[in-house]
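[job 4471] stage=fold_predict status=RUNNING
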Amino acid sequence: MEPLRVIAFGAHPDDCDLKAGGSAHRWARAGAKVKFVSVTNGNAGHHDMSGPDLAERRRKEAEAAGRVAGIEYEVLDNDDGALLPTLEVREQVIRLIRSFRADLVLTHRPNDYHPDHRYTSQVVQDAAYLVTVPNVCPDVPALRKNPVFAYFSDRFQKPQPFTPDIVVDITDVFDVKVRMIHAHESQFYEWLAWHRGALHEVPAGERERLAWLTRLMEQRFAPETERFRSAIAARYGAERAASVRFIEAFELCEYGSRPSDEELNRLFPF
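[job 4471] inference complete, writing structure tokens
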């Protein structure tokens, strides 16, 4: 039997890690083929660095994060902060989904604070049907079966809030998710700390940094578990749900294949 194939598109080289890093490792550990794609190269995400040097640094960080989880990680060369839902970017996404032969495609929802997130979502949605059309990007064979498409979780309420169609318990691999995030040093120990005025809080030593980051990520993701506690109970049962500390949640997209319960359990075999 062919292994499950999951591809996730984030706008920036750390987005997929934050939204699906734990699930990615669980998929990979179960024998699935998993690929993270950053649609931009991240060359604007810093207060001191920029341009090709930053893009190269972030590419290496993404590759290091991929090694932590046991997955493939690719960074496309589209400028950070300048992404648009163009035909060129759409065709990049179509070719990637086809060449990977994806069963499941993950991305941002279309309502989001960051334009790169919104436009990444748009191009992935625009690709959802076209991956099956042979005359579009004919250099890569069209898929005979449309993948299932799903969204990462978020907290945005308008025009509609996120609905957790699937929750994945990542409690036992949360440390792997944190170590993936730890690989993005330019972001979590530099840029994002600077952006929120907390650069002085970042420890100097690597062990101390990892402990500091772990606390930060626990504070960030624990409320999501409480927010979706009823969905966790529906998925895992009340007894198991009580012990779940960290989850990742996904909402099914109306485009692409509409999975049955049996298909969902194949895609999310946790």
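[job 4471] summary: The chain has a mean pLDDT of 97.
[job 4471] exit 0
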